[in-house]
Amino acid sequence: KEELTASGSSASVGHDTTANDARTFFTETGNGKQVPRSIFVDLEPTVIDDVRNGPMRNLYHPEQLISGKEDAANNYARGRYSIGKEVIDKVTSRLQKIAEQCDSLQGFLIFHSLGGGTGSGFTSLLVERLSTDYSKKCKLDFAVYPSPKVSTAVVEPYNAMLTTHSTIDHSDCVFMVDNEAIYDICNNSLGVDRPAYLNLNRLIAQIVSSTTASLRFNGSMNVDLNEFQTNLVPFPRIHFPLVAYAPLMSAARAAHEQHAITTLTNACFESSNMMVKCDPRAGKFMACCMLYRGDVVPKDVNAAVSAIKSK
Description:
alpha/beta
């Protein structure tokens, strides 16, 4: 199979011919290099500079790494109305260039936190622009919500509420994640005593990878971006689904355990496997979209889902 190096070139590994179509998220240049169709934005340069100077610096097009000169100071209004307005045209211009390189643009995946000024204020401004410029395209949002137990700024709840108000009208589906739930999963399920940002980000990345797997791999019942909205959104403004993932276990346990489809399906409805700190038993499920990855037979899935419904 093909794997990408840090510079974006392809490296053959073994003789596995499993289809992993990089063209879904990458553009291939004339010399065979794969360039991600992604843009990184921050209103202050520190974090983006880490990417510019890090081991993956040759993977990204320099114009896809956009940073301002000062941060939003955890202030939604600065991110949206003042500092953010200085870079929004540059971001949308670069987005247009990338969109024009696509053969069949389905939509956008947006990743941000809601606690800071950039992730809240600037993202609100951006999704409104996307809603205007690409009204027919799907916009899926992966939003990291703040938590009372894991907080870095006293104004995080305000930023989160203001951003949520904006995404109600301008995003098609917002997959919710919160810091407290991610920390607890790392501690209790993955065996990481003191989780670092690397651990948290890898867990979120695994969730996103599994969510988008059907866009990159062949399968018996694949879904595209538009089908997420169709399957998960009962009413247009109620589009904030919980995300659950199973199995969640440490690397040491993974080599010694095997799970049946019924066990995995049941685990997705346990609060310990959900990316938001809540008890699902306190409410009702209005819609559900279950994605299975690996050697899974539809017959086993139907049996597992039927068992869940009968409870």
